[in-house]
Design a protein that fits this description.
Oligomer: single chain
Number of strands: 0
Length: about 140
Amino acid sequence: MRIALIYSLLAAIATATNIFSQDMVTRVYHGPYAILLSVLVGTGVGLIVKYVLDKRYIFSFTARNMAHDGRIFLLYTLMGLVTTAIFWSFEFGFHHLFESKEMRYLGGVIGLAIGYYAKYLLDRRFVFPQESGQC
């Protein structure tokens, strides 16, 4: 239960940084593809924040060196491709259905919540397998 609470808190932090980053992009840039650019920036910022928080506070991971950390980050990112599709589907779906910034962000939050749950299961099994001693 403790790990679920900590993971939920860290997911909320990553979600907030993602949505905040998106909002900053749309405040600064109003041109073509502003929404797409904002979602890409938010996704990148959220990915980095989530990786740093997860590896330290959820999986207690310490890399042997920079190359090892880079390989783990790449694997972490690859596991995130599926969950990013979930997140983007909700965010862009809400944008299309409701045509408002607030509903797009709500779709993003819902998609991130579902995606982060799936991501935890994937990361626990494939990225940070504690029982295998690979980390």
